[in-house]
Write a structure and sequence with these properties.
Elements: E1 2-15, H1 19-28, E2 31-45, E3 50-54, H2 61-69, E4 76-81, H3 90-95, E5 97-101, H4 113-123, H5 128-141, H6 157-169, E6 175-179, H7 187-204, E7 207-211, H8 215-221, E8 224-229, E9 232-238, H9 239-246, E10 249-255, E11 273-276, E12 284-290, H10 296-306, E13 311-315, H11 319-333, H12 336-341
Parallel strand pairs: 3-7, 3-8, 5-6, 6-7
Antiparallel strand pairs: 1-2, 1-4, 8-9, 10-12, 10-13, 11-12
The structure holds adenosine-5'-triphosphate (ATP).
Adenosine-5'-triphosphate binds next to strand 1, strand 2 and helix 2.
Protein name: Sugar ABC transporter ATP-binding protein
GO molecular function: ATP binding; ATP hydrolysis activity
Pfam family, one: ABC_tran
Length: 343
């Protein structure tokens, strides 16, 4: 479906000395420098997979996606999507993919949303019956009814994003690239959008490649993650596997009655568990520990011996903290080989 081999991208930039003099000089004597944004990336994504492509700002996510959509030509390496080389077959490739780029629109600014959909119907040559069914389904799932008659420029960010999502999936593409689809949206819209993406993946088997800084998007939509760091892949694997592999920290939240004196960690847990800071007035105490060293049952029984526990919840390791840990190890450990070997 999507195959990427040793994919690389270098941007060529004009080198400029600072100030006006530098600007004038660069007009006559152009000097260039190169920026390696993607430094040899390999992955294969099968039909129907939901993959989160994550990494820090400037890691190379958008550059990779632009090469997959055919907007950019790689400097080296190979890429095929649905058997096509995207930058060589841009139009044909465009027919079988959908895309949402957070800040940009594929809708027509001055005309009502319904008319934008009609134009896309003609561009993608969607049969009448299929188009009617799809629009009716999207209208319901994304609650588009009140928006269909409104020109795109009058929509709020959340309203526009719901319409963008509909436009990206309208021609039932095999692959959809979503670059920051929930950025700046309130929680209700985020929830609706995540539900929609998951549903489309389920109904049509759409392959989804998602970039986001919102780890909740990843948790709810993706089965697999690829973490990119400074243009190279740091991790590629299942979301559950990375939690097992890296998520050694476990947190248990204990509900305690009002205490007469400050909470003290039971002696057997000293050096084994850490008390997480609580919000003011909170009667909950949260303990974090390495579950490979200390068993949850041991932490719970020691707490119950010392305190009158009303209730407790064991929290799953969060993907946020795992990604942070990977980056920390990378900063401390130096090479990728070491980080992965230590994992
Ligand atoms: N058109 C361009 N010309 C020159 N350099 C660029 C260009 N686009 C991106 N870069 C550089 O390439 C690197 C990777 O950028 P890219 O946009 O792919 O990162 P990203 O992972 O998508 O980041 P973000 O999360 O901030 O969107 C960055 O150092 C960026 O400055």
């Amino acid at each position: 479906m999507i195959t990427v081999e040793n994919l690389q991208k270098e941007y060529k930039l004009v080198k400029r000395d600072p100030g006006l003099k530098g600007a004038v000089k660069s007009l006559f004597h152009r000097q260039y420098e190169t920026k390696k944004a993607v430094k040899g990336v390999d992955f294969t994504i099968g039909q129907g997979e939901t993959v989160g492509y994550i990494g820090a700002n400037g890691a190379g996510k958008s550059t990779t996606i632009k090469m997959l959509t055919g907007i950019l030509t790689p400097s080296a390496g190979k890429v095929t999507v649905n058997g096509l080389v995207p930058y060589e077959n841009r139009q044909e490739n465009a027919l079988s993919i959908g895309a949402v780029f957070g800040q940009r629109t594929q809708l027509f600014w001055d005309i009502p949303v319904r008319e934008s959909f009609n134009l896309l119907k003609h561009i993608y040559e969607i049969p009448d019956q299929e188009f009617a069914e799809t629009v009716s389904m999207f209208t319901e799932v994304l609650n588009l009814e009140p928006l269909l008659g409104v020109p795109v420029r009058q929509l709020s960010l959340g309203q526009k994003m719901r319409c963008e999502l509909a436009a990206a999936f309208l021609h039932r593409p095999k692959v959809v690239y979503l670059d920051e689809p929930t950025i700046g949206l309130d929680i209700a819209v985020k929830v609706r959008i995540r539900k929609f993406i998951k549903e489309m993946n389920k109904i049509w088997g759409t392959t989804v490649l998602l970039t986001t800084h919102d780890m909740q998007d990843i948790e709810e939509i993706c089965d697999r993650i690829i973490i990119i760091d400074e243009g190279r892949i740091l991790y590629d694997g299942g979301l559950e596997e990375i939690k097992v592999q890296f998520g050694q920290k476990r947190v248990i939240h204990f509900d305690l009655p009002e205490l007469d004196s400050p909470f003290i960690l039971p002696a057997p847990l000293l050096g084994m568990a850490e008390v997480l800071p609580a919000s003011e007035g909170e009667t909950k105490v949260s303990l974090s520990f390495d579950h490979e060293r200390v068993k949850s049952s041991f932490v719970i029984s020691e707490m119950m011996n010392r305190y009158d526990i009303q209730d407790l919840t064991i929290a799953d390791p969060k993907i946020e903290s795992i990604v942070e840990e990977l980056y920390n190890r990378r900063e401390q450990g130096g090479t990728y080989e070491q980080v992965l070997a230590n994992s």
